[in-house]
Amino acid sequence: MPPYRYQSRLAEQGLPDVLRVPTGTGKTLAATLPWLYRRVEHPDPVVRQATPRWLVIVLPQRALVEQTVEVIDGWLRNLMLDVPVHVLMGGEDAGDRDWKARPEEERIFVGTLDMVLSRLLMRGFAEFRSAWPMSFGLLHAGVQFVFDEVQLMGPGLPTALQLQGMREAMGTAMPCRSMWMSATLNPAELSAVDFRRELSIVELDEEDRSGPLRIRIDAPRTVRRLDLEDVDARRYPKAFAARVVSEHRSGTRTLVVLNTVTRATEVFDELHKSRPDTELVLLHSRFRPGDRRQQTRRLTLSGNAGSIVVATQVLEAGVDITSETLVTEVAPWSSIVQRAGRCNRDGLASDARLLWTTPPAAPPYEAAELGHSASVLQALEGQPVTSEELAAATELTRPPHPTLRRRDVLGLFDTAPDLSGNDIDVSPFIRDVADRTVHIAWREISEDQSMEGAPGRAELCPASIRDVQAMIREGRTRARVFDQISGTWVPARPEDVRPMAVIVLDAARGGYLPDCGFAPLSTAPVEPVRPPVHMPDAVDTDPHSVLPNGRWVPLHEHLADVERECRALLDALGPELTPAQREAIALAGRYHDLGKAHPTFVASLAQADGSAPAEGGPWAKSPGRTPLRHDPPHFRHELVSALVLLDDTTGLLDGVDEPDLVIYLALAHHGKVRLTVRARPDEQVNTVLGVVHESTTVDTTLPVIGTLAARPVSLQAARFGRGSLTSRALRLRDREDLGPFRLAFCEAVVRSADWRASASYEGTTS
Fold it and tell me: How far apart are alpha carbons 674 and 727 in whole angstroms?
C-alpha cells in the first residue's frame, strides 16, 4: 500500500514541530519512515547529515511499547535495513550497552514518557545511578524526539517543551528536534517559559481527504449510553460485565476500557465467570514484559465467538486495533476521542457503536472532567460521529503543572546522593500523582539478604507506589531495595518505595498473576523470571576493571586504546564542539585511569584474580571473576586520576587549552564522582573516597610522554572552596560554550570509548 500524501510530504520536507491528524491515520509510520528515509536513504548527503541520527518515539502508556517495536521491526525487515530498535524501559538490558558503546550508529528507540523524561532529567527510573549521566549526555545530542498523543502527557508535556527550549537556548553538542503528535492538539498549548517560537505544523490537506484516507476519516460510530449510575461500587464490576456480555456480538471484537487497573481486573474476572467460551484478553500497564507481550499478541486473536478485550488507558496511544463495539467509562474528553479511534478504526464496520457509562468514582481523573465529557456524549446520543467530529468538541482547560526551570536542570546535573542517600524526585515533572509507579521484581529472598545480580528488564513490573508501600507496611511480603552506594540489598521500608527505585519482593508470598499482572492481594507464589545476571553497579563497586573472559591489560595499553577510541568517536559523530574541547576529550581518554597506578587499586586487582604476572604493570584490567574489594573501602581510582592531573609538576596538561575539562572528564568517567566530591561518613579525617592524603602512586608508563614517576596525592582539591574539583566542575557546567548538555555529552564520549576499548580485551588470553 502506498503512503498517504501527508506521510510523503514529511519524507520530502522533514518532520515538523506539530503533526495534527485524526487518530487511525498512520501517525506512527509518519514519525518513523520519513525520518528513516531522510537519515539513511535520501540522495542528498546534506539532508542525511542534517537529520538527527537517533529517533526516539515517546508513548504516554507503557503496555504497547513492545507492539510498536514489533511493527517498526517489521517495516525494517521489509525494507532490508539493519537499523537497531531499542526499548527504553526500566532495568538492565544487553541492548543498553550496545547503544551507549556505539552512539554513532543510526538507531530507533521506543519508550514511555516516564522512562524517557526521567533519563532526560538525569534521574532515569530503574537505572543504576552511574548510568544517569551517560543516558542524559547521549539523549540530548543528535536526537529527533516524537511525542505521541501529547494530550495524555500531563506534566510531561510542559517538561518536554521546556527541555526543547533549553536545548535550543543553552546549546547541545549535536542538534535535537521534537515533534508533538495528536488528533486533538491545540498548537497554542505548545508554549512554555523557555519555549516560545513559531511552530511548523502539518495537517491533512484536500488531497489526503479525497484519497484512500477518506474511508478512515469518515468512519462513524454511534454514541449510546449504558445506564449503570444506580449501581453501587461493590456491585458495579458484575453489572458492568453483564452489560458487556449482552452487547457483545458474536464473531466481532468488543473493546472495554476502564479508568483503573483495579476495576479492569474485577470486570475481567466477572467476564471469565460468565463467558468462558469467548476469547478474553486483559491488558494494562502492570505486567512483566514477557506476560505483557503475550497479552498484546492475543489482541488480534478472535475465535468463532469473537473476543472481548478489557483494558485501561493503555490503548489510547500507539496501537492500531479496531473493534465493532467500544464500551468505555467516561474519561477526560481527549481520552474519549482516543478510545473512540479504536472503534471502527478502519471504517469497515457496518454498525459500530460507542457505548459509555459513568464510573462509580472519578479518580484518577477529576470529577469536573468526567462531568464535562458526559454532557458532550449526552448531546451526541444516538448520533453516528467520526473521530474528527469528536475531536472538534471543546475540552476543559487543562490543570496547571509544575514548570521545569533552568535552575532545576542545573541542580539535577549533580548526581551525588545527599547524606541520607536520597535524591531529588523528578516525578512531579513527568506524571500526575495518581500515575506514579515503582518497578518491582519477584525473587526468592534468603534470610542473609544475599542476591545474585541486579534485576533485568524481563523481571520488572510497574506497580502503584501506594499498593507496594501497603504490602510492606502490613507485612504481606518481604522486600529488598538496592543500596546504590554500597552495592548491597537491604530491607525495604515503605519510604524506600519511590519512582527511581527497584524493589524486589518475596516470590513465595505472591503479588503477581501471569494473566492479571500485579495483584497485591494475591498470595499465590510467583514464578521468578530467570534473566541473564547483571552485575550491580553501585557507587562503591568497580565491575568494569575485572574481565572474566579477558586478560591482564597493561595500564599504558588501555590508556592508548581509549584515547584512540575517543578520537574515532569524535570523527564519526562530528559534534559541534571547539577543537580545544575535542582535544580535551581525547586527552581525558589518555589519562582517565591514572588512578589505577595507586597501590590500593594495584592490590585490589591482584587479589581479585590471584595470579598477577610477576613482571609488568601497573595493570588496567585483570581476568578475575571476583569483584574488587578495596582497603581502605570506598576507593575511587578516578578521584586519584583527577588529583594527579591537578599536580602541576607532572607537566601532563602543560599547554592544554582546556585543562579543567580534561580533569573533570577523568573524574567523571564512571559516572560515580562528578560535581560533588564528599567523604563517606565512616572515613577518617585524612581520607576521601578511600584515597588517603599524601598516599603515593607507583611509577607507570603513559602513552606519548613515557614514564610518570611515583608521587604523593594531595586531597586539597577534594575539599570545597576556590580551586576545588567541585568549583572547577561547576564553572564548566555554567559556561555558555559548554553548559550541561554539551558537558554530559563529553562525559558520554569518554565512557563509550572506555567501554569499546575494554570490550576488545574480552575473549583474549594474550
Answer: 11
